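It would be a great kindness if you could assist me with a short task in structural biology. The matter concerns a single protein, recorded as an amino acid sequence and a row of C-alpha coordinates. Could you please explain, in whatever detail you think fit, how the C-alpha coordinates follow from the sequence? Thank you for your consideration; the sequence and its C-alpha coordinates are set out here:
___
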Amino acid sequence: MTVVALNTQRTMDRAIERKRFPPARIALLAVVALTVAGLIVLVATRSGATTLRVEPTRLTTAMVRNGEFRDYYPVDGRIEPAKTVYLDVQEGGRVEEIFVAGGHPIAKGELIMRLSNANLQRSAIETETRLIENLDLLRNTQLARAQESSQLKDAMLDLDAKIVETENRYARYQRLGTGGAVSVEVLESTRNDLARLHGKRELLKQRIDREDVLGRNQLTQAKESIERLTLSLDLLKRIVDSLDVRAPIDGFLSSIDAEIGESIVPGRRIGQIDQLDAFKLRARIDQYYLSRVEVGTPGKTELDGKTYEVAVKRIYPEVVNDAFAVDIDFTGAVPPGLRRGQRLTTELSFGASTQGLIVERGGFVQHSGGRWVYLVAEDGRSARRAPVRFGRQNPRYLEVLEGLRPNDRIVTSSYTTFNDVDELEFTEPLPVLNTATAGKP
Protein backbone atom coordinates (compact mmCIF):
# COMPACT_ATOMS: atom_id res chain seq x y z
CA MET A 1 0.00 0.00 0.00
CA THR A 2 2.77 2.33 0.82
CA VAL A 3 4.50 1.75 -2.49
CA VAL A 4 1.38 2.56 -4.41
CA ALA A 5 0.88 5.75 -2.52
CA LEU A 6 4.36 6.93 -3.21
CA ASN A 7 3.96 6.37 -6.98
CA THR A 8 0.72 8.29 -6.98
CA GLN A 9 2.34 11.21 -5.28
CA ARG A 10 5.05 11.34 -7.88
CA THR A 11 2.55 11.27 -10.63
CA MET A 12 0.62 14.23 -9.22
CA ASP A 13 3.77 16.27 -8.70
CA ARG A 14 4.77 16.10 -12.45
CA ALA A 15 4.41 19.44 -14.40
CA ILE A 16 1.60 19.56 -17.01
CA GLU A 17 2.70 20.88 -20.42
CA ARG A 18 0.15 23.51 -21.87
CA LYS A 19 -0.57 23.72 -25.64
CA ARG A 20 0.40 27.05 -27.30
CA PHE A 21 -2.66 27.43 -29.69
CA PRO A 22 -5.76 25.83 -28.31
CA PRO A 23 -8.54 24.94 -30.79
CA ALA A 24 -10.91 27.59 -29.45
CA ARG A 25 -8.41 30.35 -30.10
CA ILE A 26 -7.69 29.06 -33.58
CA ALA A 27 -11.39 29.08 -34.41
CA LEU A 28 -11.74 32.66 -33.12
CA LEU A 29 -8.82 33.87 -35.20
CA ALA A 30 -10.26 32.17 -38.28
CA VAL A 31 -13.59 33.93 -37.81
CA VAL A 32 -11.87 37.29 -37.43
CA ALA A 33 -9.72 36.70 -40.51
CA LEU A 34 -12.73 35.74 -42.61
CA THR A 35 -14.62 38.80 -41.43
CA VAL A 36 -11.74 41.13 -42.28
CA ALA A 37 -11.31 39.46 -45.66
CA GLY A 38 -14.98 39.87 -46.36
CA LEU A 39 -14.85 43.55 -45.44
CA ILE A 40 -11.84 44.02 -47.67
CA VAL A 41 -13.59 42.34 -50.56
CA LEU A 42 -16.71 44.42 -49.92
CA VAL A 43 -14.77 47.70 -49.82
CA ALA A 44 -12.85 46.72 -52.91
CA THR A 45 -16.05 45.91 -54.69
CA ARG A 46 -17.70 49.16 -53.63
CA SER A 47 -14.71 51.32 -54.59
CA GLY A 48 -13.74 49.45 -57.76
CA ALA A 49 -15.49 48.35 -60.92
CA THR A 50 -19.30 48.22 -61.15
CA THR A 51 -21.18 45.68 -63.23
CA LEU A 52 -24.65 45.52 -64.73
CA ARG A 53 -26.31 42.47 -66.28
CA VAL A 54 -28.26 43.22 -69.44
CA GLU A 55 -30.04 41.26 -72.12
CA PRO A 56 -28.23 41.42 -75.47
CA THR A 57 -31.56 41.67 -77.32
CA ARG A 58 -31.84 45.24 -75.97
CA LEU A 59 -28.55 46.29 -77.57
CA THR A 60 -27.24 47.26 -80.96
CA THR A 61 -23.57 46.91 -81.78
CA ALA A 62 -21.24 47.80 -84.62
CA MET A 63 -17.79 46.80 -85.81
CA VAL A 64 -14.94 49.24 -86.24
CA ARG A 65 -13.57 48.97 -89.78
CA ASN A 66 -11.42 50.68 -92.35
CA GLY A 67 -13.55 52.48 -94.89
CA GLU A 68 -14.35 55.67 -96.80
CA PHE A 69 -15.54 58.61 -94.74
CA ARG A 70 -17.67 61.21 -96.52
CA ASP A 71 -17.76 64.50 -94.64
CA TYR A 72 -21.29 65.68 -95.42
CA TYR A 73 -24.48 66.72 -93.67
CA PRO A 74 -28.02 66.39 -95.09
CA VAL A 75 -30.39 69.27 -94.43
CA ASP A 76 -34.08 69.52 -95.11
CA GLY A 77 -34.76 72.87 -96.77
CA ARG A 78 -37.87 74.77 -97.80
CA ILE A 79 -38.13 76.51 -101.16
CA GLU A 80 -38.52 80.30 -100.89
CA PRO A 81 -38.29 83.10 -103.45
CA ALA A 82 -34.76 84.45 -103.79
CA LYS A 83 -36.09 87.98 -103.26
CA THR A 84 -39.04 88.99 -101.12
CA VAL A 85 -40.17 92.56 -100.49
CA TYR A 86 -42.37 93.14 -97.46
CA LEU A 87 -45.11 95.75 -97.49
CA ASP A 88 -44.91 97.65 -94.20
CA VAL A 89 -47.14 100.68 -93.61
CA GLN A 90 -44.98 103.72 -92.89
CA GLU A 91 -47.77 105.71 -91.25
CA GLY A 92 -51.04 104.37 -89.95
CA GLY A 93 -54.38 105.07 -91.53
CA ARG A 94 -57.80 103.81 -92.43
CA VAL A 95 -58.16 101.41 -95.35
CA GLU A 96 -60.30 103.12 -97.97
CA GLU A 97 -59.82 100.89 -101.02
CA ILE A 98 -58.09 97.63 -101.95
CA PHE A 99 -57.30 97.35 -105.66
CA VAL A 100 -55.40 94.02 -105.86
CA ALA A 101 -56.10 90.87 -103.83
CA GLY A 102 -53.45 88.46 -102.63
CA GLY A 103 -52.39 85.60 -104.87
CA HIS A 104 -52.04 87.61 -108.09
CA PRO A 105 -49.12 88.86 -110.21
CA ILE A 106 -48.42 92.57 -109.92
CA ALA A 107 -46.33 95.14 -111.78
CA LYS A 108 -43.99 97.70 -110.26
CA GLY A 109 -45.83 100.91 -109.37
CA GLU A 110 -49.27 99.32 -109.49
CA LEU A 111 -51.66 100.64 -106.82
CA ILE A 112 -52.47 97.98 -104.23
CA MET A 113 -54.27 99.82 -101.45
CA ARG A 114 -55.30 103.36 -100.49
CA LEU A 115 -55.27 104.61 -96.91
CA SER A 116 -56.51 107.85 -95.40
CA ASN A 117 -55.02 109.75 -92.45
CA ALA A 118 -56.69 113.05 -91.58
CA ASN A 119 -54.06 114.07 -89.02
CA LEU A 120 -51.24 113.48 -91.48
CA GLN A 121 -52.97 115.39 -94.25
CA ARG A 122 -53.73 118.27 -91.88
CA SER A 123 -50.06 118.39 -90.81
CA ALA A 124 -49.03 118.57 -94.45
CA ILE A 125 -51.40 121.48 -95.06
CA GLU A 126 -50.19 123.33 -91.95
CA THR A 127 -46.55 122.82 -92.93
CA GLU A 128 -47.25 124.07 -96.43
CA THR A 129 -48.98 127.13 -94.98
CA ARG A 130 -45.99 127.90 -92.74
CA LEU A 131 -43.69 127.51 -95.72
CA ILE A 132 -45.71 130.02 -97.73
CA GLU A 133 -45.69 132.44 -94.80
CA ASN A 134 -41.94 132.13 -94.45
CA LEU A 135 -41.47 132.69 -98.15
CA ASP A 136 -43.55 135.86 -97.91
CA LEU A 137 -41.54 136.93 -94.87
CA LEU A 138 -38.31 136.34 -96.75
CA ARG A 139 -39.48 138.37 -99.70
CA ASN A 140 -40.65 141.20 -97.43
CA THR A 141 -37.35 141.12 -95.55
CA GLN A 142 -35.39 141.21 -98.76
CA LEU A 143 -37.49 144.12 -100.01
CA ALA A 144 -37.15 146.05 -96.74
CA ARG A 145 -33.44 145.46 -96.64
CA ALA A 146 -33.06 146.59 -100.23
CA GLN A 147 -35.04 149.79 -99.56
CA GLU A 148 -33.13 150.61 -96.39
CA SER A 149 -29.81 149.91 -98.10
CA SER A 150 -30.80 152.20 -100.96
CA GLN A 151 -31.75 154.97 -98.54
CA LEU A 152 -28.48 154.68 -96.63
CA LYS A 153 -26.48 154.75 -99.86
CA ASP A 154 -28.38 157.86 -100.96
CA ALA A 155 -27.62 159.47 -97.62
CA MET A 156 -23.96 158.57 -98.04
CA LEU A 157 -23.92 160.14 -101.50
CA ASP A 158 -25.52 163.34 -100.18
CA LEU A 159 -23.09 163.46 -97.31
CA ASP A 160 -20.11 162.91 -99.60
CA ALA A 161 -21.35 165.75 -101.82
CA LYS A 162 -21.63 168.10 -98.84
CA ILE A 163 -18.14 167.11 -97.70
CA VAL A 164 -16.73 167.89 -101.15
CA GLU A 165 -18.58 171.18 -101.24
CA THR A 166 -17.38 172.14 -97.75
CA GLU A 167 -13.80 171.10 -98.54
CA ASN A 168 -13.80 173.30 -101.63
CA ARG A 169 -15.27 176.22 -99.70
CA TYR A 170 -12.75 175.81 -96.91
CA ALA A 171 -9.88 175.73 -99.40
CA ARG A 172 -11.19 178.87 -101.06
CA TYR A 173 -11.57 180.63 -97.71
CA GLN A 174 -8.03 179.73 -96.87
CA ARG A 175 -6.75 181.41 -100.03
CA LEU A 176 -8.88 184.47 -99.43
CA GLY A 177 -8.08 184.62 -95.75
CA THR A 178 -4.44 185.38 -96.45
CA GLY A 179 -5.51 188.72 -98.03
CA GLY A 180 -7.91 189.55 -95.20
CA ALA A 181 -11.04 189.02 -97.33
CA VAL A 182 -12.40 186.26 -95.01
CA SER A 183 -12.45 186.59 -91.27
CA VAL A 184 -10.88 184.10 -88.95
CA GLU A 185 -14.27 183.27 -87.47
CA VAL A 186 -15.69 182.25 -90.87
CA LEU A 187 -12.64 180.13 -91.63
CA GLU A 188 -12.86 178.29 -88.29
CA SER A 189 -16.61 177.77 -88.68
CA THR A 190 -16.08 176.25 -92.11
CA ARG A 191 -13.33 173.97 -90.77
CA ASN A 192 -15.65 172.85 -87.94
CA ASP A 193 -18.45 172.12 -90.43
CA LEU A 194 -16.05 169.99 -92.45
CA ALA A 195 -14.94 168.01 -89.39
CA ARG A 196 -18.57 167.46 -88.36
CA LEU A 197 -19.43 166.18 -91.84
CA HIS A 198 -16.52 163.75 -91.75
CA GLY A 199 -17.72 162.48 -88.36
CA LYS A 200 -21.27 162.00 -89.65
CA ARG A 201 -19.89 160.12 -92.64
CA GLU A 202 -17.98 157.74 -90.34
CA LEU A 203 -21.10 157.11 -88.26
CA LEU A 204 -23.16 156.53 -91.41
CA LYS A 205 -20.56 154.08 -92.73
CA GLN A 206 -20.62 152.11 -89.44
CA ARG A 207 -24.42 152.00 -89.60
CA ILE A 208 -24.33 150.73 -93.17
CA ASP A 209 -21.86 147.99 -92.15
CA ARG A 210 -24.03 146.95 -89.19
CA GLU A 211 -27.15 146.91 -91.31
CA ASP A 212 -25.42 144.78 -93.92
CA VAL A 213 -24.35 142.20 -91.30
CA LEU A 214 -27.81 142.22 -89.70
CA GLY A 215 -29.50 141.91 -93.06
CA ARG A 216 -27.29 139.00 -94.12
CA ASN A 217 -28.03 137.19 -90.83
CA GLN A 218 -31.75 137.73 -91.20
CA LEU A 219 -31.71 136.49 -94.76
CA THR A 220 -29.62 133.45 -93.78
CA GLN A 221 -32.00 132.55 -90.95
CA ALA A 222 -35.02 133.02 -93.19
CA LYS A 223 -33.49 130.83 -95.91
CA GLU A 224 -32.57 128.11 -93.38
CA SER A 225 -36.11 128.17 -91.99
CA ILE A 226 -37.47 127.84 -95.51
CA GLU A 227 -35.12 124.94 -96.26
CA ARG A 228 -36.24 123.12 -93.11
CA LEU A 229 -39.88 123.69 -93.93
CA THR A 230 -39.26 122.56 -97.50
CA LEU A 231 -37.65 119.33 -96.28
CA SER A 232 -40.48 118.77 -93.81
CA LEU A 233 -43.02 119.38 -96.52
CA ASP A 234 -41.26 117.01 -98.91
CA LEU A 235 -41.17 114.35 -96.19
CA LEU A 236 -44.83 114.86 -95.40
CA LYS A 237 -45.72 114.68 -99.06
CA ARG A 238 -43.82 111.39 -99.38
CA ILE A 239 -45.62 110.07 -96.30
CA VAL A 240 -48.96 111.22 -97.68
CA ASP A 241 -48.07 109.61 -100.99
CA SER A 242 -47.25 106.39 -99.09
CA LEU A 243 -50.91 106.20 -98.10
CA ASP A 244 -51.30 104.96 -101.67
CA VAL A 245 -49.57 101.59 -101.25
CA ARG A 246 -47.89 100.65 -104.53
CA ALA A 247 -45.85 97.64 -105.63
CA PRO A 248 -42.10 98.40 -105.34
CA ILE A 249 -41.12 95.56 -107.72
CA ASP A 250 -42.59 93.25 -110.33
CA GLY A 251 -43.60 89.99 -108.75
CA PHE A 252 -46.31 87.96 -107.12
CA LEU A 253 -48.46 89.49 -104.39
CA SER A 254 -48.57 86.59 -101.97
CA SER A 255 -51.05 88.00 -99.49
CA ILE A 256 -52.79 91.14 -98.21
CA ASP A 257 -53.58 91.34 -94.52
CA ALA A 258 -56.10 94.20 -94.42
CA GLU A 259 -59.82 94.87 -94.81
CA ILE A 260 -61.69 97.95 -96.01
CA GLY A 261 -62.49 100.23 -93.07
CA GLU A 262 -59.76 98.70 -90.88
CA SER A 263 -57.38 101.01 -89.01
CA ILE A 264 -53.74 100.13 -89.68
CA VAL A 265 -51.10 101.06 -87.08
CA PRO A 266 -47.71 102.45 -88.20
CA GLY A 267 -45.14 99.79 -89.06
CA ARG A 268 -47.64 97.00 -89.56
CA ARG A 269 -46.81 94.44 -92.27
CA ILE A 270 -49.77 94.08 -94.59
CA GLY A 271 -48.31 91.77 -97.23
CA GLN A 272 -45.34 90.72 -99.32
CA ILE A 273 -44.30 90.51 -102.94
CA ASP A 274 -42.17 87.59 -104.13
CA GLN A 275 -40.04 87.43 -107.24
CA LEU A 276 -40.75 84.01 -108.70
CA ASP A 277 -38.00 84.02 -111.33
CA ALA A 278 -35.39 82.85 -108.77
CA PHE A 279 -35.52 80.62 -105.70
CA LYS A 280 -33.45 79.70 -102.65
CA LEU A 281 -33.55 77.05 -99.92
CA ARG A 282 -34.04 78.07 -96.31
CA ALA A 283 -32.73 75.28 -94.04
CA ARG A 284 -31.97 74.69 -90.36
CA ILE A 285 -28.73 72.95 -89.35
CA ASP A 286 -27.64 71.34 -86.09
CA GLN A 287 -25.57 73.73 -83.97
CA TYR A 288 -22.68 71.20 -84.03
CA TYR A 289 -21.93 72.42 -87.57
CA LEU A 290 -22.05 76.17 -86.78
CA SER A 291 -18.25 76.46 -86.87
CA ARG A 292 -17.98 74.40 -90.05
CA VAL A 293 -20.63 75.94 -92.27
CA GLU A 294 -19.34 78.96 -94.18
CA VAL A 295 -20.64 81.18 -96.94
CA GLY A 296 -19.85 79.24 -100.10
CA THR A 297 -19.99 75.75 -98.54
CA PRO A 298 -20.96 73.54 -101.51
CA GLY A 299 -23.61 70.88 -101.67
CA LYS A 300 -26.02 69.08 -103.95
CA THR A 301 -29.67 68.14 -104.10
CA GLU A 302 -31.57 65.65 -106.20
CA LEU A 303 -34.98 66.07 -107.78
CA ASP A 304 -36.67 63.82 -110.34
CA GLY A 305 -33.48 61.81 -110.78
CA LYS A 306 -31.28 64.83 -111.53
CA THR A 307 -28.56 66.36 -109.37
CA TYR A 308 -28.34 70.14 -108.87
CA GLU A 309 -25.38 72.01 -107.38
CA VAL A 310 -25.98 74.43 -104.50
CA ALA A 311 -23.94 76.58 -102.09
CA VAL A 312 -24.57 78.38 -98.81
CA LYS A 313 -25.23 82.07 -99.47
CA ARG A 314 -26.11 83.45 -96.04
CA ILE A 315 -25.75 82.25 -92.43
CA TYR A 316 -28.02 83.28 -89.56
CA PRO A 317 -25.79 82.51 -86.52
CA GLU A 318 -28.50 82.80 -83.87
CA VAL A 319 -29.11 79.35 -82.38
CA VAL A 320 -32.76 78.50 -81.71
CA ASN A 321 -33.77 75.06 -80.44
CA ASP A 322 -30.21 73.74 -80.97
CA ALA A 323 -30.14 74.75 -84.65
CA PHE A 324 -29.30 77.74 -86.83
CA ALA A 325 -30.66 78.83 -90.22
CA VAL A 326 -28.96 79.25 -93.60
CA ASP A 327 -29.95 80.37 -97.09
CA ILE A 328 -28.79 78.06 -99.88
CA ASP A 329 -28.67 79.14 -103.55
CA PHE A 330 -28.60 77.08 -106.71
CA THR A 331 -25.19 77.67 -108.31
CA GLY A 332 -26.02 76.12 -111.66
CA ALA A 333 -29.23 74.99 -113.25
CA VAL A 334 -32.42 75.47 -111.24
CA PRO A 335 -34.94 72.61 -111.05
CA PRO A 336 -38.02 73.44 -113.11
CA GLY A 337 -41.44 73.76 -111.56
CA LEU A 338 -40.32 74.75 -108.06
CA ARG A 339 -43.07 76.02 -105.76
CA ARG A 340 -42.92 78.15 -102.66
CA GLY A 341 -42.96 75.91 -99.55
CA GLN A 342 -41.74 72.82 -101.41
CA ARG A 343 -39.19 70.82 -99.38
CA LEU A 344 -35.89 69.45 -100.69
CA THR A 345 -33.11 67.49 -98.99
CA THR A 346 -29.65 68.88 -99.60
CA GLU A 347 -26.26 67.35 -98.78
CA LEU A 348 -23.69 69.95 -97.71
CA SER A 349 -20.11 68.78 -98.27
CA PHE A 350 -17.25 69.80 -95.95
CA GLY A 351 -14.36 68.25 -97.84
CA ALA A 352 -13.19 65.34 -99.98
CA SER A 353 -13.74 61.71 -98.95
CA THR A 354 -10.93 60.10 -96.92
CA GLN A 355 -9.96 56.58 -95.90
CA GLY A 356 -9.66 55.65 -92.22
CA LEU A 357 -11.26 53.92 -89.24
CA ILE A 358 -15.01 54.43 -89.03
CA VAL A 359 -17.87 53.11 -86.93
CA GLU A 360 -21.61 53.53 -87.16
CA ARG A 361 -23.29 56.29 -85.19
CA GLY A 362 -25.76 55.48 -82.44
CA GLY A 363 -27.56 56.78 -79.42
CA PHE A 364 -24.46 56.34 -77.26
CA VAL A 365 -22.97 59.59 -78.60
CA GLN A 366 -25.59 61.74 -76.85
CA HIS A 367 -24.87 60.10 -73.48
CA SER A 368 -21.09 59.70 -73.50
CA GLY A 369 -20.39 62.75 -75.61
CA GLY A 370 -18.26 60.48 -77.79
CA ARG A 371 -15.56 60.32 -75.10
CA TRP A 372 -15.99 56.65 -74.18
CA VAL A 373 -17.75 53.51 -75.39
CA TYR A 374 -18.62 50.03 -74.16
CA LEU A 375 -16.08 47.80 -75.92
CA VAL A 376 -17.34 44.23 -76.38
CA ALA A 377 -15.05 41.42 -75.19
CA GLU A 378 -13.80 38.89 -77.73
CA ASP A 379 -16.03 36.15 -76.28
CA GLY A 380 -19.11 38.39 -76.64
CA ARG A 381 -20.16 37.86 -73.03
CA SER A 382 -19.40 41.33 -71.67
CA ALA A 383 -18.41 44.90 -72.56
CA ARG A 384 -16.26 47.31 -70.61
CA ARG A 385 -15.89 51.08 -70.70
CA ALA A 386 -13.03 52.26 -72.89
CA PRO A 387 -11.91 55.83 -73.61
CA VAL A 388 -12.00 56.87 -77.26
CA ARG A 389 -11.59 59.94 -79.40
CA PHE A 390 -13.75 60.56 -82.43
CA GLY A 391 -13.13 63.12 -85.15
CA ARG A 392 -15.56 64.15 -87.84
CA GLN A 393 -19.03 62.73 -88.11
CA ASN A 394 -21.82 62.49 -90.60
CA PRO A 395 -25.35 61.20 -90.10
CA ARG A 396 -24.22 57.56 -90.44
CA TYR A 397 -20.62 57.26 -89.29
CA LEU A 398 -18.04 58.54 -86.83
CA GLU A 399 -14.38 58.96 -87.68
CA VAL A 400 -12.27 57.01 -85.14
CA LEU A 401 -9.03 58.75 -84.09
CA GLU A 402 -7.95 56.93 -80.91
CA GLY A 403 -8.95 54.08 -78.59
CA LEU A 404 -10.29 51.52 -81.09
CA ARG A 405 -8.82 49.13 -83.65
CA PRO A 406 -10.18 47.41 -86.74
CA ASN A 407 -12.69 44.64 -85.92
CA ASP A 408 -13.33 46.02 -82.42
CA ARG A 409 -17.00 45.78 -81.55
CA ILE A 410 -18.80 48.45 -79.53
CA VAL A 411 -22.28 48.93 -78.14
CA THR A 412 -23.90 51.72 -80.19
CA SER A 413 -27.37 51.89 -78.62
CA SER A 414 -28.19 54.43 -75.93
CA TYR A 415 -26.33 54.20 -72.61
CA THR A 416 -28.98 56.06 -70.63
CA THR A 417 -30.19 53.04 -68.62
CA PHE A 418 -26.72 51.70 -67.80
CA ASN A 419 -25.99 54.23 -64.99
CA ASP A 420 -22.41 54.64 -66.28
CA VAL A 421 -21.31 51.25 -64.88
CA ASP A 422 -17.82 50.07 -65.71
CA GLU A 423 -18.83 46.77 -67.24
CA LEU A 424 -21.86 45.17 -68.85
CA GLU A 425 -22.41 41.43 -68.39
CA PHE A 426 -24.67 39.84 -70.98
CA THR A 427 -27.16 37.17 -69.98
CA GLU A 428 -26.07 35.29 -73.09
CA PRO A 429 -23.27 35.78 -75.63
CA LEU A 430 -23.82 38.33 -78.40
CA PRO A 431 -24.44 36.86 -81.84
CA VAL A 432 -21.41 36.99 -84.10
CA LEU A 433 -21.37 39.82 -86.70
CA ASN A 434 -20.25 39.17 -90.26
CA THR A 435 -17.14 41.38 -90.45
CA ALA A 436 -17.38 41.43 -94.22
CA THR A 437 -20.74 43.18 -94.19
CA ALA A 438 -20.99 44.74 -90.73
CA GLY A 439 -21.34 48.48 -90.97
CA LYS A 440 -21.29 48.36 -94.78
CA PRO A 441 -23.08 51.42 -96.19
